[in-house]
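Recap from last week: sequence in, structure out.
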Amino acid sequence: MGKKVLLSQFMATFVSTLITIIVGLLIGLLMLVLTAHDVAFPAFKMIITGSFGLTGFSNGFGRVLYYAVPIMMTGLSVGFALKTGVFNIGATGQFLLGIYAGIYVGIIGEQIFGSFTWIAALIAGAAAGGLWGLIQGLLQAYKNVNAIVCGIMMNYVGLFLMDILIKGNNKLYFGGRNWTNSIPANGLLPKAGLNQIFVGSGANSGIIFGIIICIVAYYILKKTSLGYEMKACGYNPSAARYAGINVERSVIIAMLLAGVFAGLGGVMYHNGSVGQKFTLSDALRPEGFTGIPVALLASNHPIGIIFTSLFIAYLQVGGLGMQSYGLEPEVVSVITAIIIFFCSFNFLFKRMYMRLIQKLFEGK
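Predicted structure tokens:
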């Protein structure tokens, strides 16, 4: 029984991911030693402790939950698509359209939906992100457009479309300040009592919805015929087509659902906060791209994405705390990038682990 557990894919994935993280953190420490001699170890400790020493455990962990929600959803968007053989690098555009839909319904829809405005905003964000993903899916399935080129271009189209739509609406745009009006209370996600547990952190029910959505995504992939067909297309499109599976349909549905997840992430990010004004920018939001390492560290597993998003958010909170030592929080981005780099060795780490366990049980 012990051998079966140790040689399971779950255990192999867990150990290889843990090795990846440890190696990445150690190289990050070396980078800090070389660039910030005096504060290298205290700053590294800040990363490890997640700045809990500065803010306290309750506030610190609440901040981790808050930052984990958007990258959990964009990570799920990327990972779900990769499970079906599609690289969704367009999650940022879908995320932005979700933010726009959440702002629009949250502000304008209050008179219509009343206390249910936040639910309508979630539905609108899912629809907006899903539509953006659907367009990419159609282009990839029927026009054979390169997934990377298509996704990146759609990100920028989504960014500037969002700017145009907001600036063209006086009810949304706070004129001359380059930001939106605040969302009324009915348009915000419920706190679900988390604001009482994690005081001052911004934690809200978005983390609960995010975990539920990840479980639903796992169920779709693992327990439904649709999930089986999409995964079959991911493993071998030619064999799937030969078996009678409509590959184009699977690509389109995969991108539609990936867009829904990213769009929901956009709503839960902005409408899950205190409804502060959203600042318009010509730069893409980082959450969509951060979703890529979240998915890769979890080997694209929907349940694993819950934990890797919490881990990356933990690093982000620690990175913010590093500013107390005069370091920029982008240092964490560099360390995360190093961890992503070592994700490419995941397969090698898995093989080494499996061979080691087999030799141990063989007495060699």
